[in-house]
Amino acid sequence: MQSILRGAGLRLVCPTRANGYRLQGTLNALYLTRAKRAQPMVQHTSGHVRASMACIHTLSLVRSAAPASEAARESGGSSASAADLGDLIPRERIRNVGIIAHVDHGKTTLVDCLLKQSGALLGSSAMQETRVMDSNAIEKERGITILSKVTSLMYQNHRINIVDTPGHADFGGEVERILSMVDSVVLVVDASEGPMAQTKFVLTKALARGIHPLVVLNKVDRPSSRPDEVDSELLELFLALGASDEQTSYDLLYASAKEGWCTSDLAEAGTLAETSAGVNKGAGNMVPLLDAIIRSVPPPKGERENAPFSMLVTQLEANSYLGKCALGRINSGIVRVGDKIRVLEPGTGAVQEEGKVTKLFLRSGVQQIEMEQAGAGDLVSLSGVPTVGVNATIAGPEVTEALDYVPVDPPTISVTFSVNDSPLAGREGKLLTSNMIRDRLRREAETNVALQVVDDGKSESMEVRGRGELQLSVLIETMRREGFELSVTPPRVLFKRVPNNKNAVLEPYEEITIDVDHKSSGIVIEKLTKRKGELKSFIDVADKARLIFHIPTRGLLGYASEFKNDTHGTGVMNHAFLRYGEHAGAFEKTRKSSMICLSSGTATSYALNMVESRGTLFIRNGDDVYPGMIVGELSKDGSDLEVNPTKAKQLTNIRAAGKDEAIRLTPVKPWALEEAIAYVNPDEAIEVTPTQVRLRKRILDPQSRKRSSRKQVSDIDQFVD
Q1: What is the largest CA-CA distance in the chain?
Q2: Where is each Tr-type G domain found (predicted)?
Q3: Can you give the three-state secondary structure of 382-402, one letter per residue?
Q4: Domain spans of the chain, in order of start
């Protein structure tokens, strides 16, 4: 055994038979099966890779030592491992599936579990990590999926291509975009929460494309799980969305992605849940889900031998050595490295660029595997056409028509990006000019089809339109980390005119689902009603009250921070775009006035101590300030108040009879970017630098600001789409 392991560049720690481990698989598909509770390690001889076998169960899951099937021999591969290295395999042995769900229902954890149990991560440092698909730094910090990710694994001589998608409504464009790449979806639903707002959104898109979903009720091992009730709620949702008889006859599985098991039997799920909570953790596996994918998901369609190569670009990837790589699903034909290709513009079919394939990649686990050829049904990345964009068609020279693409829903809110023109500009950032900001936003719009950049090319500001505050805040956070300094306006809703009636205005509405304690439901209903929300449902879910509102998007802007305070951090709020409806009218003022700085300099504790009695401070002693900067919020309603936070105590040589009192200021919490975006008023802006988030008036000069307020144009007239 040791000699075989050395031949593969591996060695076994504690390799005696008493440990109950045996070698199973070929050199390219090496893994160990556990027969006892001992947990030795497989480690690479270089010492760089040490992968624990705790997650690899006693299964012949994906990479078996059995001889290759007849189909594998026909395709030129000697085993499943050969296909795993990027060989062209028959189309009938490919499965393309997307993982869709509401936020925090366990999609990414489920994909992690599949990759680890299949051996796709064996020999990689990712074996010890959680949420390996969330590779972006912001994704890891926030614990959410922002970008769609493609990976693959081998199981029973089949290649299963998996697309992990975001669950937050603001990134719904990623879900809409990947549906053209897959033949079915795995709908993951929390067995405690049940179907939520984003569940309805992603399911609507999947059913509209005729996809037959496979449903997984996740987290059934929780004490609060209610699988029978959630199954009934899901069936009602399918029927309400107009699903066909075949779509409502979905396969239902019960799982705990965190514990690593799945089953089609509810009684067995209860037994596994009890086992997972006890001493025998690790019982069960994900084989039922993999079997269901192979059984229920149809193989991809498309001719290979008698059709020209064509591929719809779904996503762009950056490569340090190859430049821009295009990711997509091959619609027809076979492509090989060195083949001549052309890029066709979406819609028109005009030839945008011609070139040849320089590299071809398949993603397996968290690694990219180089391929020599790929055919219809494969999800691959290729390089060689640097000007390609999302939704473009890459095809052979004989193809003249572009492939159809799925248009995403239009954006509903917008912000304006402009140069940071404050007196403190240029102290921290390196990317300062309007041309740099404009180029960066254009590059973002090329890869993110849910964003729109409106730029007349003349002014120094650019309007960016998106789905929600979170989506725009992630873009701003990414740019500040890259070294940009920006001035950003608060989000505004995009209105629409009725075509036959110019006086009628439509605005976007959202469906908002809220889970709160019963004692907090009253204040939530009161505040959302003031924001023109309409209560559609009030039900009990476990020990929480679930409220469902239909509310204008304007009513949600700035509400997140209020909701957190009203529910003491225990409430959960989710929302998704519903429709465009009639304008709901003006809202009541929801925020008090501001304290505006009237001088430049450094804030002093002496001045702040006198100002603090007027309201809440946003700055600390020693902070740099400038005229027009917002330094606090007044405790009473009224007009803005100008203050001088830089005033210092006058020193004299006359001895005072009493001692100075020690100054104790209330600690100030630094602004988070999302909080600042939700807080600012329309006449204010956010100054964003690599290390600071400051609030300011859009017009710094007080006299110009007063003149501008007299001739202010309404939001509807200014921002109608």
Answers
A1: 102
A2: 92-301
A3: EECCCCCCCCCEEECCCCCCC
A4: 91-296, 310-395, 409-495+583-650+663-720, 505-582
